[in-house]
Design a protein that fits this description.
Keywords: DNA-binding, Nucleus, Transcription, Transcription regulation. This protein is α+β, with helices and mostly antiparallel strands. The chain has a domain of 80 residues: Transcriptional Co-activator pc4, Chain A (Roll), CATH 2.30.31. Helix content is 22%, strand content 30%. The strands form two sheets. Strands 1-2-3-4 form a four-stranded antiparallel β-sheet. Strands 5-6-7-8 form a four-stranded antiparallel β-sheet. Helix 4 packs antiparallel against helix 5. It is globular, with a radius of gyration of 18 Å. It starts with 46 loop residues before the first strand and ends with a helix.
């Protein structure tokens, strides 16, 4: 496998971060588009971000000293500063156990079925297919706006709300292309998680390199 450039922890890739910014990491070799811009923050974000397109990233890192996997859309708080990105509200955080369930889901049949129903003149309806990841988190294959969508979402009630209140939903809708990109990066995420279990940080150079060559 040909060697490709990766972002070293504490280093800034050319044209990807403004002066004084703390790079959050991320090798463009693991994605189909360039490395994501760095967040301009005083906190070092110990996470790896893998692009899925349209500012959506698959990330793996630490939260409260525990490993966490995120599928989340980022945004530019300042449109004039393309090097500054922040995580948005659209997304879903997963524990390693929920991540394992996500990888094991038999979604291909549901995706093909939904895609057939998006073909013009195809008669008959289709019900969304929902899969449980645990802790009120789900994956749903459905048709949204005439296109197949793989939706990662969570059901919840606002803090303090009575059980009689309706359940609310939050999450993110992925296109088929984004889902396929996510699938192609599952082994890389697993490599990072394995290293973290052995006491490594996700942004360590050797961790990134082991995730690339799998």
């Amino acid at each position: 496998m040909a060697q490709q450039q990766i972002a070293q922890p504490g280093a800034v890739l050319p044209n990807t971060a403004s002066a004084g910014a703390t790079p959050s990491i991320v090798p463009d070799i693991l994605g189909s588009e360039g490395a994501p811009p760095s967040q301009n923050t005083n906190l070092k974000p110990h996470e790896v971000r893998l692009p899925l397109g349209d500012n959506v990233f698959l990330t793996v890192g630490m939260f409260r000293n525990k490993p966490i996997i995120n599928v989340r859309q980022f945004y530019h708080p300042d449109p004039a500063d393309v090097n500054k990105m922040r995580p948005g509200k659209k997304g879903l955080a997963l524990t390693p156990k929920q991540w394992a369930k996500l990888k094991a889901l038999p979604l291909l049949g549901a995706i093909l079925d939904a895609t057939c129903h998006t073909i013009p003149y195809y008669f008959g309806g289709i019900e969304p297919k929902m899969y449980d990841l645990g802790s009120e988190k789900y994956v749903t294959v459905q048709i949204l706006h005439g296109q197949t969508s793989i939706t990662l979402h969570q059901h919840y009630r606002p803090y303090g709300a009575p059980d009689t209140d309706p359940v609310m939903k939050r999450g993110i809708d992925l296109t088929i292309q984004q889902w396929e990109d996510l699938e192609s990066k599952m082994k890389a995420v697993d490599k990072v998680l394995e290293a973290m279990e052995n006491g490594k940080m996700p942004t360590d150079k050797d961790v990134i390199q082991s995730a690339i060559v799998y």
